[in-house]
Fold:
Amino acid sequence: MSTPWRATVLGSQVAELLRRPGRFTATGLSLLIAAFVVFGTVMAQQIITATVVERFRGTPEAVSLVVTPGDGEDIDEDRLSEILKTPGVTEAVGRLDGGSPLDGSAVERYLALSADPGTGALAEVRLLDGTYPSGPGRLAVDTRAAREYGLAPGSSLTLLRPEPDGEGTRRVTVEVSGIVRGTATDDAEPTGYAPGPQLGELLGVPGYSRIDVRTGTASSASGSVDPAERIRRAVPGARVRSGDEVREEEAREAVAEAKDTLELVTVFLAVAVGAAVLVATSTFRIVFARRVRQLALLRAIGATPRRLAAALVAEGAVVGLLAGATGVLSAWGCGRLVPPVAGRFGHDLSAPSHLPPAEAVLTVLGTGLLAVLAVLAPSLSASRVSPLQALRSAASGEGAASGTGRTLLGLLCAAGAALLARRQYGGLPQPGDTEFDRFAALTVVVLSGGLAFLALIALGPRLVRPVLSAVAVPLRRTGAAGRLAVAGVGGAPGRAASVSVVVALGACLVGSTLTCLASLNAYERYRQAVEAPADFHLYPRDGETLDRSLAADLASHPELADVTAFRTAEVVEGARGATVSDLDLGTVRSGVGLTARTGSLDHLGPAHVVVDADHAHRLGVRAGDRVTLEFEGRPVHLTVAATLPGAGPYGGNFFVPAADLTRMGADAAPTTVTADASRDGAQGRIRAQRAITDTLTGPERGDGRVIAEDPAAQAGESDDLRTMATTVIMVLGLTVLVAVVGVATTASLTVVERGREFGLLRALGLSGAAVHRMVTVECALYGVLGGVLGLALGMPYSWLVVRVAETSAPFSVPAGELAAVFAALVLVTAAAGTVPALRASRTSPTVAVAQDE
Structure:
């Protein structure tokens, strides 16, 4: 008997799917999107890996073997000759790396140096202009060195090399013979190239750190011993690896950074998948509620709750597998289209070579498993339907708003989240705390946030009506459509909570990410103002001072801008040494500026001081408190005008007005002069460097030592932060997409379910346009509820994350961006209800007297 009954129940579910494919679309769409984004990430990794590997030029393809010393000593010319004499070896070149400061400018510059043959199958560089060096005293430089140092074929460079005895340096002048394109990345140092023997002589290095070997194609068949073994015998202790092994290792390192980013994205994809499960669970619950009479009839003819639940779970698994397969194929198709489309916009991407079968199968099976998890609770509830329900009309599917057990579970989760958050709040790091375990602290914050979200899921039905009553006051004054929309959402709090919680998840994560990004950007601007306040820093050499008129002379050059001179002096604070400076903090990095944690930098006046975060924390002072410093044995009493959120510029700890530093007895000569290039770009910096070099003419001007900051590197760090944040926000946008699908699905099923209600409203005189507005406003309310709940949940955790990630970072709330996110959520959820609203507006008044849908 069991088999026929099982067949009957399963057959009934299959027939239902075939008869109403729209319900399959409703239940499977969120799962399809989850499968699409998961496998889309796999495809993105395939594309990035293929692109990086194809563009990467490390060890040349012609290299058959790579020989490195195994005992820590370089391989000298005699061993290289032995390798060249080894049977089967066609070519061998030695490689070594080094570098040297450059002379001839007051600005400290550095040139990395690398050995390369320049021509032939084993060359890593390609000549672009001039000739490759073939004798002593000549170098080829890469395009970055040519651009930043203003070099061309025929130019000369003076390298500063240490003397053989280690005492002092000697100047070695070399000629730039050509410009090459090297293997260095954009953020690598400017590099010069020459053949191994010439570069070894220039650097004073007796051997090579690596030998690249090319063997003949038939070498392995010409004897019983292969070339690798012969090389090991010729160079005892050397490590010999195949070129393929080395290239594979280099390729893995080349794509490691991209893979790290993708792994971070994968963490956030889990959030989108979780949102899809929530939406699918809600959808299955609504669909099963619509089929209550069919399920009751199956119960009436003998189907047991267990078999009915099993049949519903099987139905969900089929939906999940079909949705997973469709999502995988869609992602694969899009992945194949991305490279040619990107090529039309000037981006050269490589297409993945094949469909990764293991990842595809795992994605499909995983989607099926997600469907089973999503359908499990609704199927158990639906299987317990009473056979008497067969005699009643279809239920709405909205039972009690929340049971006692669910409420208790929500309260327990909320209590756990609060306890973890309070514990972390009490253990926040203080300025200067270098032993704080940020990873463990962030883990606690994430656990607390997870419990808080579970509490939101459990308590959602009880929160809907209070929040709705607060935010829907204006809607009740807009007419019948607005009042009916509020009543429709409030009349089904469980359903509203199911959809709004997913919207809240997206709002919480996106809002928190934007807030953390704004706070970290504010700190990054502060850090740049501290660590790189100007393009050039001029310091006196040891035992010297800078000329008092140096700043004025530098300011007279049109190539320079924002020239600033200031003094520093050593003081004693308590029993510790510290640095006091008269740097005008208002002149630091125009357009970025410094901020104050307490007080205001504008309050710095006579007998006042600005204190960095570390000393302010150690002294326990805030703006308005008093501090005592000791200068040359004399106490100096000052009032704190402001405290900084982090370190002070140029290592300063205390900042006072120039007149106060003079009264303390400091020398009037400046100890530091800063300047910016008046024009952006490499050429502007080169002209600025030349102006500084022309001004620093020797000891009579202080023989200044200049440090040139690289604004591109500083901007690169900010760009990396913005790029990663943008990537995270885009991935989190998938959560919002899933939420929108959930709103559209819920609205579509609701329209079918409430057909008689809409028909009655039409019969009572409500126009089709008013019904359309009502359904659209209901969907918009899902966005309003989700936005309010999500942002309310996200802001406290954003504050905790910022404090844990960087103690000195100010907490900045991007009100404009958060308002835009909230408005976008309302608009997209309203747009999700457009099609269901159109269908509802077309409901005929005669539906009100119909017996069924």
